[in-house]
Amino acid sequence: MDYSVVDPDELEPIEDRDCDLRLMSEPAGLENVAINRFRAEPGEQLPLVYHYHEQQEEAFIVQSGTLHVETPDGEYEVPAGSVFAVRPEAPQRAYNPENAETAVEVFAIGAPPVSGDAVKYEPDAE
């Protein structure tokens, strides 16, 4: 398969997650990059806890709403149409605050597409 068109709304959401998560890489036939679509209602967190990746770079492309990202450097507000990039070993926690007026929809792209390299970050442990 050289080309693919994937509608994330046609994919089954991943169960037991705080927000709606659709895994897009496999349906698109991609092996070298992870692509996920998140939709978080007010008060929901994108699936992982405060964490960092040992190897993976990530880019969060905000399609609608405003993504909030907690980092050791402070809090970022990422509006629709913007990209929030994270280098390996940089702790972050992405969420939609409880007082948000709308859901936030984000496409997350990560490479390499490693599984199990997410490390829980505890800011008080430093």
From TrEMBL:
<dbReference type="GO" id="GO:0046872">
    <property type="term" value="F:metal ion binding"/>
</dbReference>
<dbReference type="Pfam" id="PF07883">
    <property type="entry name" value="Cupin_2"/>
</dbReference>
<keyword id="KW-0479">Metal-binding</keyword>
<feature type="domain" description="Cupin type-2">
    <location>
        <begin position="38"/>
        <end position="102"/>
    </location>
</feature>
<dbReference type="InterPro" id="IPR011051">
    <property type="entry name" value="RmlC_Cupin_sf"/>
</dbReference>
<dbReference type="InterPro" id="IPR051610">
    <property type="entry name" value="GPI/OXD"/>
</dbReference>
<dbReference type="InterPro" id="IPR014710">
    <property type="entry name" value="RmlC-like_jellyroll"/>
</dbReference>
<dbReference type="InterPro" id="IPR013096">
    <property type="entry name" value="Cupin_2"/>
</dbReference>
<protein>
    <submittedName>
        <fullName>Cupin</fullName>
    </submittedName>
</protein>
